Please model this.
Amino acid sequence: MKRIAIQRCCSTPVLLKQYETSTDSVLRRLGVEPVDIQNFGCCGYPLRTFDLEAYLACSAKNISLAEKEGLQVLTFCNGCYLSLRQAYHYLKNDDNVKAGTNAILAQDGLVFRGTTEIVHLLHFLISIKEKIHDSITSHLKGLKVATHYGCQLMRPREVVDFTQHKPPLFFDELVEITGAESISWAAKQDCCGAPIYGLNPDISTRLLVKKILNAKEAGASLLCIACPFCQLQFDHVQHRLLAEGRLDQGLPCILYTQLLGLALGLDEEALGIQKNKIDLTWIKDFL
Model:
């Protein structure tokens, strides 16, 4: 069984535990063992604009711990992915930055060498798409899905580039492996508004509503997400808007690992389907 180090997002244990359980369940079904390395900490993302040195030390510590074990680092959070990839980019391309960061890591007996790979969950899954295809037990025929990639998964291109297509197609391909149809929609690559929710909730929710309405107009019956913060925006915030009467009709959303898990025949409880704020029990009709 292939082993891979998991960079878990700070928000998921409290707000989105189903992303962790569904990811672990899907990986194990596909013959991959998710490894939680002792002393893995925050990726450093919250510090990036305040203290570059501290941010780099946080990211580099996790990367160096994985290097020590000879493991790739996999993250299912777009923010963590960009954070780790950006730090890796800095450290690999600036010897002075690398030396300064390694001086900090040396206090814990660690060193960043840049010998491991940092992959997003979708990046990893598309690399084993044949294995996924062969493992599908239920095809979600007739389900029309709008994929939301998320801003930090796609840019800056020199840091996170792992797609040869413009517009990107890898998430759509992963959705269609389940038997569902990935629809075309105009607002597909627009921001969901999550990054500015705490600063300007009005603009944030307007961006969210615009995307929801556009996906519905394009014929989607479901939004598919692969980032914790985007999922919180589409599920938790949308649920609040519906409860407050600020949105007439919503659009259910699902994490990709939940969608894939259903197609792999995994238990709904392990996938955490019941933990989503907006009801998804109807999706069983497509299995």
